[in-house]
What does this fold into?
Amino acid sequence: MPPNFTNPRPNFYQSDAGFSVEVLGRTGLRYVDDKRAMFVDSEVLASPGLTIATRLGDIKQWDAPHEKETVNEDDRRRIVQNIRLALESQGFELQVDDEQSTF
It folds into this structure.
């Protein structure tokens, strides 16, 4: 069963599964999972509705003090799926490029 989301403040989507996603403007997302956080480079696209694009390779590392924890391919895919669920709960779309380069 997909998680339920609340929207306690603008652009902040909190799940009952223990993660949250915050849209930080036109570029960037803040993803928080189990007391760890990371910045995910992203871009709001000019398209009908709200579409946010990111690359799998832009999910790189946790913020301090967890920066030494490895973020592997399975972690990246789980984080992308959680971000997708959060955005889709608000009627938005997430477009993900599997390339490892950054914007």
